[in-house]
Amino acid sequence: MFSLLTQMGLRPGKGQPPLKVLEIGAVNAQLFSIPWLSVRAIDLRPCLPSIEQADFLQLQPAGAFDVVVCAMVLNCVPTAKDRGNMLLKARGHLQHGGHAFIVTPLRCLNDSLHMTTKYFEEALAAAGLQVKHSKFSPKLAFYCLEAADICAAAASMYADPDKTVARGSKKTNDFAISFDEATVQTVKRIVSV
User: Fold this and answer.
1) pTM higher than 0.70 for the full model?
2) I need a surface site. Which of 7, 105, 113, 132 has the fewest CB within 10 A?
3) pLDDT tens-digit map of 109-118
4) In this structure, are residues 54 and 84 in contact, taking their beta carbons and an 8 Å threshold?
């Protein structure tokens, strides 16, 4: 994340304010040690006093952050609808031109009847998160995403979490994403201001 922000010219120079970062599902204080980041780290069950106890899905987006970090969290969200809401709200928390960093297990994208890498990237775009960089390790998918417009048809395009988009005998999980119309409209109002 640090090198990408620097490569994209987003690292603030001397005298400039730090980037405002929202870290969802924080498990350590690593980001707090970077002087050019002003971090709000949240988790449902924080393990450090510097991490705020909060449910991301209950936070009202306000387009206040330069960066949203969501590493190994989306896969822990139990329902397709809440995963979709997490993506939409991540977009809602970003300022125009902001960036999100999402990391998820590759098996969520490759081993589900309801998901493929291509379908996931299309869902990200529908949620207003345009892929700028992606990288895949044997076990993880890393995405750097830029805030964009939310697709007006996002809710209808991704309404059915049980839609089969991949076939094969090694499909072992039910990872899916769906968007509900109310959240799409709420976040669209926030990001259009």
Assistant:
1) yes
2) 7
3) 999 888 999 9
4) no
* pLDDT tens track for 52-89: 999 999 999 999 999 999 999 999 999 999 999 999 99
- Return d(Cα 120, Cα 140) in angstroms, integer: 14
Q: How far is CA 105 from CA 25, 33, 58, 152, in A?
A: 15, 26, 24, 28
Strands 129-136 and 140-147: antiparallel
**DSSP, residue by residue, the chain:** -HHHHHHTT-S--TTSPPEEEEEET--SSGGGG-TTEEEEEEESS-SSTTSEE--GGGSPP-S-EEEEEEES-GGG-SSHHHHHHHHHHHHHHEEEEEEEEEEEEHHHHHSBTTB-HHHHHHHHHHTTEEEEEEEE-SSEEEEEEEE-PPPTTHHHHT--TT------TT--B-------HHHHHHHHHHHT-
Residue 154 has pLDDT above 90, yes or no: no
DSSP for 11-63, written as a single string: S--TTSPPEEEEEET--SSGGGG-TTEEEEEEESS-SSTTSEE--GGGSPP-S
pLDDT above 90: residue 161:
no
CB of 103 closer than 8 Å to CB of 72: yes
